[in-house]
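--- STAGE predict ---
source: upstream dedup step, 1 unique chain passed
mode: sequence only
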Amino acid sequence: MRSTEDLNRLDYELIMAEHSVEKGLSHFNLRPFGKNPLRRIFNFINLELKYEHPETHFAFSTAINLLKQYKAIYEAKNWTSKYTYKNVSKFLIKYEKIPEQKTGAYVLTKEELKNDYNIDYKKFIKSRHSL
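--- STAGE serialize ---
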């Protein structure tokens, strides 16, 4: 994946950087974080701009929406004076028209998961892995 700078490689790198921020947002005892992963996301988004219609690319649009969620969480926690919040806010000004989509981490109860997805809960949990 790292051999050439093409759209597929950029998408891969962007998704990996997004995952780092999503994982950070999933902590129950959330604290301000993200300087390096956010810098990587900004960089990869800027690199994707040289391709036609980047807003239609999955990795690009999910990255913008993740940044919007990051900003909203910082606002809810009253962390608006933080350096990372200010950088994300400034960066997002250019991308206000990107359609919203769900990103990040969500807390679901066991019952919600069973009802919404009609799955074998134990089998599902045993199948989950993180690297």
